[in-house]
Amino acid sequence: MDLMQLAGLTPGAVICEVLDEAGNAARGETLRELARRWDIGVISVEAIARFRREHHVSRVAQTRLPLPEAEFNTLAYQEISTGEQYLALTLGDIEEKQEKPLLVRLHSACATGISWARSAAIVRRNSMPP
C-alpha cells in the first residue's frame, strides 16, 4: 500500500511469493537473480520505511504549460503523510544548474479549486444588487 501512496496512486495490494525452480521461496541472492532475469525491480520493506522517514513529499506528475510569454514546467507533489497535494510552476528546469535564481510559484491547494472559487466569487459579486 505504501508504494501505491508514494506513487500518488489509489492504494491497493497483492500478496504473492516468488518461488525458485525447485519450488522453494526465493530469498536474497536467488530473488535478485530472478529479478534480473525477468527484468523486474525488487525493493525491501526497510527501503520503503527509510524513504518515508527521509522524504516528506513525492513528485506525482509533471508536464509543460506553454503560454504566449513563456513555457512553464508544472510539477505536482503530494505530502506523503497527509496526501495533501501541491502544484509548483517553474520557469526553468529544477534539475539543471541555473545561472540565475529559478522562478517558482507554489500552490498549496488544488489549482482548479482556486480558479473555480475565484470565478464563483466574481459571479457572486457581479450578480449582487447595488
TrEMBL record:
It comes from the Bacteria. Pathway: Cofactor biosynthesis; riboflavin biosynthesis; 2-hydroxy-3-oxobutyl phosphate from D-ribulose 5-phosphate: step 1/1. Its EC number is 4.1.99.12. One of its GO terms (biological process) is riboflavin biosynthetic process. InterPro entries: DHBP_synth_RibB-like_a/b_dom (IPR017945), DHBP_synthase_RibB (IPR000422), GTP_cyclohydro_II (IPR032677), RibA-like_sf (IPR036144). It catalyses: D-ribulose 5-phosphate = (2S)-2-hydroxy-3-oxobutyl phosphate + formate + H(+). It is an enzyme of class 4 (lyase). Residues 59-113 form the GTP cyclohydrolase II domain. SUPFAM superfamilies: RibA-like, YrdC/RibB. GO terms for molecular function: 3,4-dihydroxy-2-butanone-4-phosphate synthase activity; metal ion binding. It holds the Pfam family GTP_cyclohydro2. The keyword Metal-binding applies. One of its GO terms (cellular component) is cytosol. PANTHER family: 3,4-DIHYDROXY-2-BUTANONE 4-PHOSPHATE SYNTHASE (PTHR21327:SF18), GTP CYCLOHYDROLASE II-RELATED (PTHR21327). Catalyzes the conversion of D-ribulose 5-phosphate to formate and 3,4-dihydroxy-2-butanone 4-phosphate. In the N-terminal section; belongs to the DHBP synthase family. This is 3,4-dihydroxy-2-butanone-4-phosphate synthase. It comes from Dictyobacter vulcani.
